[in-house]
Amino acid sequence: MSYIKSALLDEKGYVILDRYDQAADPQEWNDLEYVDWKSSGVTQFAPLASAFGEIEANGFWNHTPPRTDKDGVWVDSQVAKAPHLAARAKEPGANVGRCRVIELQPNNYANTLYNLHQDDNNRLNPDGSGWIVRGFFNLTDDPESFMTLREDRWDPTTEIRIPLPAGAQIIVDTQRFWHAVWHKGPQARYCLITSWESGPALDAYIAKHHGHNNHVNPPLDQKIMDDAQAEVHRRYAERSAALAAQGRVGRDPADSEA
Length: 258
Description:
The protein has helices at residues 7-12, 76-81, 83-90, 109-114, 200-208, 222-245; strands at residues 14-16, 35-36, 43-50, 73-74, 96-104, 132-138, 142-150, 159-164, 169-172, 178-182, 189-197. The longest helix has 24 residues, at 222-245. It is built from 6 helices and 11 strands. Helix content is 23%, strand content 25%. It is of the alpha+beta class. Strand 7 (142-150) and strand 8 form a beta hairpin. The strands form 2 sheets. Strands 1, 2, 3, 4, 5, 6, 9 and 11 form an 8-stranded antiparallel beta sheet that branches. A 3-stranded antiparallel beta sheet has the order 8-7-10.
């Protein structure tokens, strides 16, 4: 399949934009209506755009008719409560699919690795159209938390950790990367997540905000990495053994698309 992709995203799979002045905006995420939807930990979502303008977070391909993660319908009641957030999602001028705010409770590194998952944004996406990627705009100030990306789920040497202070703006090819957020807390983290279609409009937006993919990982003690990796392997082995004892094969929880 041949898709239209942004050069910087195609190169490394992620782009870091200029930091946004989050302190200048009201905390609109506190006013939104959230629905229970589990992804990479203990989470809730507040949809701003969904398949049919309802307050629900399901993939567009799980509706009738099924379709790819494009042409989201804005939820009027939510946009009225969060006009700044909706405007930020619309700013690139690219086609928007799902747009929502995620609430993530604190977790630890082992849980982050256990919950690594790939998205399925481009299911049913027609050949020759724009590849769907996701913008992550951190709303709360979580400088010790990290967007955690791996090209190989089981290979720590492929890991990228991007800090998440207030106003951090990242675009990620979440179908390419296994990803989850290591949120150290102590309070819940809030982030605006928007599905965008790659193309000239998104390229211009990336250039306007000085997008780059030059990043050096913050240091992390090797023992912490080794212990977390061992814990994840242990948990998966225990889960597989428990399911086998019941005579069934379970769905990998980390394969859930958000």
